[in-house]
Design brief:
By secondary structure, this protein is of the alpha+beta class. It is built from six helices and eight strands, in the order H-H-H-E-E-E-E-E-E-H-H-H-E-E. Helix 1 runs antiparallel to helix 3.
Length: about 220
């Protein structure tokens, strides 16, 4: 079921934190509005964004992170780097309260070559558990685990474009909500979203498969 967003005013008393459901609804509303905004920006500035990963970061990526409660100007939450090897590649490290990088976001110019999004050949620059690669339109989310040999193995959580998904992308990008990423047990971060599924309403946990019941005609 798609997340629904309430437009009613909050009844939370001053000085008190709103309930979790209200916080979630507020986040989805802001995230959906931001997705619409960055799509308009992308369409209006394609020639520029094809040349500048810094422009993609500032105009298309950081607004989405901000809608997910990341204070991108605070170096204790988000650290910004130029990639040590790849030109025109920006790296953002999303950190928890202990200063540990939980997720790495690699930002590339718009319409980057397909090979740069190849999920079989990721190149993270940190020990983060999650790697996100984006050009401001396409988003590739990957989860890392260490196997018995100590090598890190990756699993693709989602691979989609805002252009194709529209507001439904909010469901997937909500995985990067700061409250989720910095939690001891991140909610839905162990989820697989089938790339062939046209409607992303469902999130299927790893190790499970949907059961199709036969219905008599």
């Amino acid at each position: 079921m798609r997340p629904t967003v309430s437009t009613q005013e909050s009844n939370t008393p001053p000085g008190h934190s709103p309930p979790a459901s209200e916080q979630t609804a507020k986040m989805f509303k802001e995230l959906t509005d931001t997705i619409n905004l960055v799509q308009q920006r992308r369409a209006a500035g394609i020639p520029y964004f094809r040349l500048s990963s810094a422009g993609v970061q500032a105009a298309l990526v950081e607004p989405i992170l901000q809608a997910l409660d990341w204070e991108t100007a605070d170096p204790f939450q988000v650290q910004h780097y130029d990639h040590p090897e790849a030109k025109r590649l920006r790296v953002l490290m999303l950190r928890n309260r202990q200063g540990i990088t939980q997720a790495e976001v690699q930002v590339r110019p718009l319409n980057t070559r397909e090979v740069d999004f190849d999920p079989t050949n990721p190149e993270p620059t940190s020990n983060a558990d999650f790697l996100i690669t984006t050009d401001g339109n396409r988003w590739l989310l990957q989860k890392y685990r260490r196997d018995q040999t100590g090598l890190k193995r990756h699993h693709t959580i989602a691979d989609f474009t805002l252009e194709e998904m529209g507001n439904r992308a909010a469901l997937v990008l909500s995985l990067l909500w700061k409250q989720n990423v910095t939690a001891e047990e991140p909610f839905l971060m162990e989820a697989t979203i089938p790339p062939e599924k046209e409607d992303y309403d469902e999130v299927i946990p790893l190790g499970t498969e949907p059961v199709m019941e036969e219905v008599d005609a």
